[in-house]
Design a protein that fits this description.
Layout: E1 11-12, E2 24-29, E3 32-37, E4 40-47, H1 49-61
Antiparallel strand pairs: 1-2, 2-3, 3-4
């Protein structure tokens, strides 16, 4: 958990590769998980953990 004024610690998706500039990043901000795309870092989606799991499952089912 982050304290007040602490910067958000974003984690890049392991599917992005080492030098990828276009990737999905996740961060924790209790009680939510934050999701953003690296090329639009100001656009952040805050989801409950169950909501993120549902989004991932939905995306996988559309492959």
């Amino acid at each position: 958990m982050r304290g007040p004024g602490m910067p958000t610690q974003w984690q890049k998706s392991s599917f992005s590769g080492i030098d990828a500039e276009n990737c999905i990043e996740l961060a924790r901000s209790e009680p939510h998980l934050l999701l953003r795309e690296s090329d639009a870092p100001g656009d952040v989606i805050a989801l409950a953990p169950g909501g993120l799991l549902a989004l991932i499952r939905q995306c996988k089912s559309r492959r």
